[in-house]
Design a protein that fits this description.
Layout (H helix, E strand, L loop, with lengths): L1 E6 L2 E4 L4 E9 L7 E6 L6 E6 L6 E3 L7 E6 L4 E6 L8 E9 L2 E4 L3 E6 L1
Parallel strand pairs: 2-11
Antiparallel strand pairs: 1-3, 3-8, 4-5, 4-9, 5-6, 7-8, 9-10, 9-11
Length: 116
């Protein structure tokens, strides 16, 4: 069992930065990959970024490449999403995700709103 709690969302202006955090509890944090998804109003949830259990491999989708960075601190059981040069189209609820033993674990999400 894994519990995920996101934080760090808010209302910002275009061009600003935010750092999202996801605190995990339950099974050994350093043993599983993690990622971030987002869901904009009226749209389906989409994958944004992923990171391997060790942090040695990361991936971000093209739409955020060069602006978003995913990282993790296994000592703190936390994964981060650093978001720079935010755009209005980044407005969404951001969800932390942990795939483990064929199950998908999700946090409740944190809202990011980017005004133009």
């Amino acid at each position: 069992q894994v519990q995920l709690v996101e934080s760090g969302g808010g209302l910002v202006q275009a061009g600003d930065s935010l750092r999202l955090s996801c605190a995990a509890s339950g099974r050994s944090f350093s043993s599983y990959d993690m990622g971030w998804f987002r869901q904009a109003p009226g749209k389906e949830r989409e994958f944004v970024a992923g990171i391997s259990w060790s942090g040695g491999r990361t991936y971000v989708v093209d739409s955020v490449k060069g602006r978003f960075t995913i990282s993790r601190d296994n000592a703190k059981n936390t994964v981060y999403l650093q978001m720079n040069s935010l755009k209005p189209e980044d407005t969404a609820v951001y969800y932390c995700w942990a795939p483990l033993y064929g199950l998908n674990y999700w946090g409740k999400g944190t809202l990011v709103t980017v005004s133009s």
